[in-house]
Task: structure prediction
Amino acid sequence: MDGSVKNICPSCGHPDESTSHITRCSDPGRLASLRAAVDDLSEWMEENDTDPYLQYLIEEYLLGQGELDMCDIIDGQPVYIAFAEIHDILGWDNFVEGRISKRLVHLQAQYLSTIQTFVQPSSWASGLMRQLLLLTHQQWLYRNCTVHYKAEGRSLHQHEQILRKVTTLLHTDEDMLMPEDRNLLHIDFANLADGPTIAQERWIASMNSALAARRIQRARRGGELDYPTLGGDFIKRDRKGLLFSTNSHVKSIAGRVLAVLGVFLLRCTDRPKLHHLRKKLSMASSSGLSLPVFW
Result:
Protein backbone atom coordinates (compact mmCIF):
# COMPACT_ATOMS: atom_id res chain seq x y z
CA MET A 1 0.00 0.00 0.00
CA ASP A 2 1.17 3.54 -0.78
CA GLY A 3 2.37 5.00 2.52
CA SER A 4 1.13 8.44 1.51
CA VAL A 5 -2.46 7.19 1.35
CA LYS A 6 -4.31 6.98 4.64
CA ASN A 7 -5.81 3.55 5.30
CA ILE A 8 -9.28 4.76 6.25
CA CYS A 9 -12.71 4.21 4.78
CA PRO A 10 -13.30 7.00 2.21
CA SER A 11 -17.00 7.05 3.09
CA CYS A 12 -17.22 6.95 6.90
CA GLY A 13 -13.61 7.48 8.01
CA HIS A 14 -13.35 4.11 9.75
CA PRO A 15 -9.65 3.39 10.42
CA ASP A 16 -7.81 0.43 8.90
CA GLU A 17 -10.31 -0.23 6.13
CA SER A 18 -10.60 -3.96 5.36
CA THR A 19 -12.55 -5.98 2.83
CA SER A 20 -15.03 -7.00 5.54
CA HIS A 21 -15.80 -3.32 6.17
CA ILE A 22 -17.06 -2.86 2.62
CA THR A 23 -20.46 -4.39 3.42
CA ARG A 24 -20.53 -3.05 6.99
CA CYS A 25 -19.93 0.65 6.31
CA SER A 26 -22.44 2.94 8.06
CA ASP A 27 -22.09 5.87 5.66
CA PRO A 28 -25.60 7.07 4.62
CA GLY A 29 -24.79 6.69 0.92
CA ARG A 30 -23.46 3.17 1.41
CA LEU A 31 -26.53 2.27 3.48
CA ALA A 32 -28.80 3.56 0.72
CA SER A 33 -26.87 1.46 -1.81
CA LEU A 34 -27.18 -1.62 0.42
CA ARG A 35 -30.93 -1.12 0.88
CA ALA A 36 -31.37 -0.80 -2.89
CA ALA A 37 -29.42 -4.04 -3.38
CA VAL A 38 -31.52 -5.81 -0.71
CA ASP A 39 -34.67 -4.56 -2.47
CA ASP A 40 -33.39 -6.08 -5.72
CA LEU A 41 -32.66 -9.34 -3.92
CA SER A 42 -36.14 -9.33 -2.33
CA GLU A 43 -37.71 -8.90 -5.76
CA TRP A 44 -35.64 -11.80 -7.09
CA MET A 45 -36.66 -14.01 -4.14
CA GLU A 46 -40.35 -13.27 -4.73
CA GLU A 47 -40.05 -14.03 -8.43
CA ASN A 48 -38.31 -17.33 -7.65
CA ASP A 49 -40.86 -18.64 -5.15
CA THR A 50 -38.72 -18.29 -2.04
CA ASP A 51 -40.11 -19.55 1.26
CA PRO A 52 -41.70 -16.35 2.68
CA TYR A 53 -40.18 -16.83 6.12
CA LEU A 54 -36.73 -17.53 4.66
CA GLN A 55 -37.08 -14.37 2.61
CA TYR A 56 -37.89 -12.40 5.75
CA LEU A 57 -34.88 -13.87 7.58
CA ILE A 58 -32.48 -13.09 4.73
CA GLU A 59 -33.74 -9.52 4.35
CA GLU A 60 -33.50 -8.75 8.07
CA TYR A 61 -30.07 -10.37 8.33
CA LEU A 62 -28.65 -8.35 5.44
CA LEU A 63 -30.05 -5.06 6.72
CA GLY A 64 -28.37 -5.83 10.05
CA GLN A 65 -24.95 -5.56 8.32
CA GLY A 66 -23.37 -8.28 10.44
CA GLU A 67 -24.57 -6.86 13.75
CA LEU A 68 -27.38 -9.43 14.01
CA ASP A 69 -27.06 -13.20 14.27
CA MET A 70 -29.60 -15.26 12.37
CA CYS A 71 -30.60 -16.88 15.67
CA ASP A 72 -31.55 -13.42 16.95
CA ILE A 73 -34.10 -13.03 14.15
CA ILE A 74 -35.80 -16.41 14.52
CA ASP A 75 -39.13 -15.93 16.33
CA GLY A 76 -40.79 -19.11 17.52
CA GLN A 77 -40.04 -21.09 14.35
CA PRO A 78 -38.30 -24.28 15.56
CA VAL A 79 -38.01 -25.76 12.05
CA TYR A 80 -35.60 -22.94 11.12
CA ILE A 81 -33.42 -23.08 14.25
CA ALA A 82 -30.96 -25.68 12.91
CA PHE A 83 -30.45 -23.57 9.77
CA ALA A 84 -29.89 -20.42 11.86
CA GLU A 85 -27.27 -22.10 14.03
CA ILE A 86 -25.32 -23.37 11.00
CA HIS A 87 -25.67 -19.99 9.28
CA ASP A 88 -24.21 -18.13 12.25
CA ILE A 89 -21.21 -20.46 12.22
CA LEU A 90 -20.57 -19.48 8.60
CA GLY A 91 -21.06 -15.82 9.49
CA TRP A 92 -21.67 -12.55 7.67
CA ASP A 93 -18.59 -12.41 5.44
CA ASN A 94 -19.15 -15.88 4.02
CA PHE A 95 -22.82 -15.18 3.35
CA VAL A 96 -22.30 -11.92 1.44
CA GLU A 97 -19.62 -13.66 -0.63
CA GLY A 98 -22.19 -16.21 -1.81
CA ARG A 99 -21.48 -19.10 0.55
CA ILE A 100 -24.72 -20.59 1.83
CA SER A 101 -25.51 -23.65 3.95
CA LYS A 102 -27.02 -26.89 2.66
CA ARG A 103 -29.65 -26.54 5.37
CA LEU A 104 -30.89 -23.32 3.75
CA VAL A 105 -31.27 -25.07 0.39
CA HIS A 106 -33.00 -28.01 2.10
CA LEU A 107 -35.59 -25.72 3.69
CA GLN A 108 -36.24 -24.04 0.35
CA ALA A 109 -36.56 -27.44 -1.37
CA GLN A 110 -39.16 -28.47 1.22
CA TYR A 111 -41.16 -25.33 0.53
CA LEU A 112 -40.97 -25.77 -3.26
CA SER A 113 -42.35 -29.29 -2.90
CA THR A 114 -45.54 -27.86 -1.38
CA ILE A 115 -46.38 -25.43 -4.20
CA GLN A 116 -46.82 -25.53 -7.96
CA THR A 117 -43.65 -24.10 -9.45
CA PHE A 118 -41.02 -24.67 -12.12
CA VAL A 119 -38.23 -23.45 -9.82
CA GLN A 120 -35.68 -26.12 -8.91
CA PRO A 121 -33.75 -26.04 -5.60
CA SER A 122 -30.40 -26.14 -7.40
CA SER A 123 -31.22 -23.22 -9.70
CA TRP A 124 -32.65 -21.28 -6.75
CA ALA A 125 -29.45 -21.82 -4.76
CA SER A 126 -27.16 -20.77 -7.61
CA GLY A 127 -29.34 -17.73 -8.24
CA LEU A 128 -29.23 -16.69 -4.59
CA MET A 129 -25.44 -16.99 -4.53
CA ARG A 130 -25.19 -14.84 -7.66
CA GLN A 131 -27.48 -12.20 -6.14
CA LEU A 132 -25.43 -12.07 -2.94
CA LEU A 133 -22.21 -11.62 -4.90
CA LEU A 134 -23.85 -8.86 -6.90
CA LEU A 135 -24.88 -7.12 -3.67
CA THR A 136 -21.27 -7.13 -2.46
CA HIS A 137 -20.00 -6.05 -5.88
CA GLN A 138 -22.35 -3.06 -5.81
CA GLN A 139 -20.91 -1.99 -2.47
CA TRP A 140 -17.42 -2.15 -3.97
CA LEU A 141 -18.57 -0.02 -6.88
CA TYR A 142 -19.97 2.61 -4.56
CA ARG A 143 -16.77 2.61 -2.51
CA ASN A 144 -14.61 2.98 -5.61
CA CYS A 145 -16.77 5.85 -6.87
CA THR A 146 -16.03 7.69 -3.63
CA VAL A 147 -12.30 7.08 -3.93
CA HIS A 148 -11.64 7.74 -7.59
CA TYR A 149 -14.22 10.24 -8.75
CA LYS A 150 -15.30 13.74 -7.93
CA ALA A 151 -18.87 14.79 -7.21
CA GLU A 152 -21.24 12.64 -9.29
CA GLY A 153 -18.47 10.50 -10.49
CA ARG A 154 -16.26 10.36 -13.49
CA SER A 155 -14.26 12.22 -16.05
CA LEU A 156 -15.62 12.58 -19.60
CA HIS A 157 -13.46 9.65 -20.76
CA GLN A 158 -14.73 7.44 -17.93
CA HIS A 159 -18.35 8.36 -18.71
CA GLU A 160 -17.74 7.45 -22.34
CA GLN A 161 -16.30 4.07 -21.34
CA ILE A 162 -19.32 3.25 -19.21
CA LEU A 163 -21.80 4.30 -21.89
CA ARG A 164 -19.83 2.27 -24.46
CA LYS A 165 -20.19 -0.82 -22.26
CA VAL A 166 -23.90 -0.16 -21.87
CA THR A 167 -24.31 0.28 -25.63
CA THR A 168 -22.45 -2.95 -26.36
CA LEU A 169 -24.54 -4.91 -23.87
CA LEU A 170 -27.73 -3.45 -25.34
CA HIS A 171 -27.09 -5.59 -28.43
CA THR A 172 -27.12 -8.81 -26.42
CA ASP A 173 -29.36 -11.46 -27.95
CA GLU A 174 -31.98 -12.70 -25.48
CA ASP A 175 -30.84 -16.26 -26.22
CA MET A 176 -27.55 -15.37 -24.55
CA LEU A 177 -29.37 -14.97 -21.22
CA MET A 178 -31.33 -17.40 -19.10
CA PRO A 179 -35.11 -16.73 -19.08
CA GLU A 180 -35.05 -15.32 -15.55
CA ASP A 181 -32.40 -12.74 -16.55
CA ARG A 182 -33.98 -11.47 -19.78
CA ASN A 183 -35.81 -8.72 -17.92
CA LEU A 184 -32.45 -6.91 -17.89
CA LEU A 185 -33.02 -6.13 -21.57
CA HIS A 186 -36.53 -4.78 -20.96
CA ILE A 187 -35.69 -1.76 -18.84
CA ASP A 188 -35.99 1.90 -19.88
CA PHE A 189 -32.55 2.49 -21.35
CA ALA A 190 -33.17 6.22 -21.85
CA ASN A 191 -33.58 6.56 -18.09
CA LEU A 192 -30.54 4.35 -17.56
CA ALA A 193 -28.37 6.53 -19.82
CA ASP A 194 -29.57 9.74 -18.17
CA GLY A 195 -29.46 8.34 -14.64
CA PRO A 196 -26.63 8.16 -12.09
CA THR A 197 -23.46 6.32 -13.04
CA ILE A 198 -23.88 3.90 -10.11
CA ALA A 199 -27.12 2.67 -11.71
CA GLN A 200 -25.28 2.10 -14.99
CA GLU A 201 -22.49 0.22 -13.20
CA ARG A 202 -25.02 -1.94 -11.40
CA TRP A 203 -26.76 -2.80 -14.68
CA ILE A 204 -23.45 -3.66 -16.35
CA ALA A 205 -22.50 -5.88 -13.40
CA SER A 206 -25.91 -7.60 -13.56
CA MET A 207 -25.55 -8.23 -17.30
CA ASN A 208 -22.02 -9.60 -16.99
CA SER A 209 -23.15 -11.91 -14.19
CA ALA A 210 -26.15 -13.09 -16.22
CA LEU A 211 -24.03 -13.72 -19.35
CA ALA A 212 -21.50 -15.71 -17.32
CA ALA A 213 -24.27 -17.80 -15.79
CA ARG A 214 -25.65 -18.62 -19.25
CA ARG A 215 -22.20 -19.61 -20.54
CA ILE A 216 -21.70 -21.93 -17.59
CA GLN A 217 -25.14 -23.48 -18.14
CA ARG A 218 -24.43 -24.12 -21.81
CA ALA A 219 -20.99 -25.53 -21.09
CA ARG A 220 -22.48 -27.99 -18.62
CA ARG A 221 -25.17 -29.07 -21.05
CA GLY A 222 -22.77 -29.31 -23.98
CA GLY A 223 -25.05 -27.04 -25.97
CA GLU A 224 -24.53 -24.58 -28.76
CA LEU A 225 -21.43 -22.50 -29.33
CA ASP A 226 -22.08 -18.95 -30.51
CA TYR A 227 -19.98 -17.17 -33.08
CA PRO A 228 -20.53 -13.36 -32.96
CA THR A 229 -20.95 -11.43 -36.18
CA LEU A 230 -21.46 -7.77 -37.04
CA GLY A 231 -24.60 -6.04 -35.78
CA GLY A 232 -24.90 -8.06 -32.58
CA ASP A 233 -26.29 -11.17 -34.31
CA PHE A 234 -24.87 -14.63 -34.14
CA ILE A 235 -24.00 -17.59 -36.27
CA LYS A 236 -24.48 -20.80 -34.31
CA ARG A 237 -23.43 -24.40 -34.64
CA ASP A 238 -26.06 -26.85 -33.46
CA ARG A 239 -25.57 -30.38 -32.13
CA LYS A 240 -25.67 -31.86 -35.65
CA GLY A 241 -22.83 -29.65 -36.87
CA LEU A 242 -25.09 -27.38 -38.93
CA LEU A 243 -24.52 -23.64 -39.13
CA PHE A 244 -27.42 -21.24 -38.97
CA SER A 245 -27.84 -17.50 -38.42
CA THR A 246 -30.17 -15.32 -36.32
CA ASN A 247 -29.61 -12.39 -38.70
CA SER A 248 -32.36 -11.98 -41.34
CA HIS A 249 -29.92 -10.17 -43.67
CA VAL A 250 -27.50 -13.08 -43.48
CA LYS A 251 -30.38 -15.49 -44.17
CA SER A 252 -31.38 -13.50 -47.26
CA ILE A 253 -27.85 -13.50 -48.67
CA ALA A 254 -27.46 -17.18 -47.87
CA GLY A 255 -30.70 -17.97 -49.68
CA ARG A 256 -29.39 -16.36 -52.88
CA VAL A 257 -26.07 -18.19 -52.50
CA LEU A 258 -27.92 -21.49 -52.14
CA ALA A 259 -29.95 -20.78 -55.28
CA VAL A 260 -26.85 -19.99 -57.39
CA LEU A 261 -25.03 -22.99 -55.94
CA GLY A 262 -27.99 -25.20 -56.75
CA VAL A 263 -28.16 -24.12 -60.39
CA PHE A 264 -24.42 -24.65 -60.81
CA LEU A 265 -24.48 -28.10 -59.25
CA LEU A 266 -27.54 -29.16 -61.22
CA ARG A 267 -25.77 -28.32 -64.46
CA CYS A 268 -22.72 -30.29 -63.42
CA THR A 269 -24.52 -33.32 -61.98
CA ASP A 270 -25.81 -36.34 -63.83
CA ARG A 271 -29.57 -37.06 -63.88
CA PRO A 272 -29.70 -39.92 -61.29
CA LYS A 273 -28.48 -37.52 -58.58
CA LEU A 274 -30.88 -34.63 -59.32
CA HIS A 275 -33.70 -35.76 -57.01
CA HIS A 276 -31.35 -36.27 -54.08
CA LEU A 277 -29.70 -32.87 -54.64
CA ARG A 278 -33.04 -31.05 -54.92
CA LYS A 279 -34.09 -32.58 -51.62
CA LYS A 280 -30.94 -31.30 -49.90
CA LEU A 281 -31.42 -27.77 -51.28
CA SER A 282 -35.05 -27.73 -50.23
CA MET A 283 -34.20 -28.75 -46.67
CA ALA A 284 -31.46 -26.12 -46.43
CA SER A 285 -33.66 -23.35 -47.85
CA SER A 286 -36.64 -24.10 -45.59
CA SER A 287 -34.52 -23.59 -42.46
CA GLY A 288 -33.48 -20.05 -43.42
CA LEU A 289 -29.83 -21.06 -43.45
CA SER A 290 -28.81 -24.56 -42.51
CA LEU A 291 -25.58 -25.58 -44.18
CA PRO A 292 -23.58 -28.64 -43.16
CA VAL A 293 -19.95 -27.92 -42.43
CA PHE A 294 -19.05 -30.45 -45.11
CA TRP A 295 -21.75 -30.89 -47.76
In short: Residues 224-261, 263-270, 287-295 have pLDDT under 50 and may be disordered. The longest helix spans residues 121-148. Residues 235-292 form one domain.
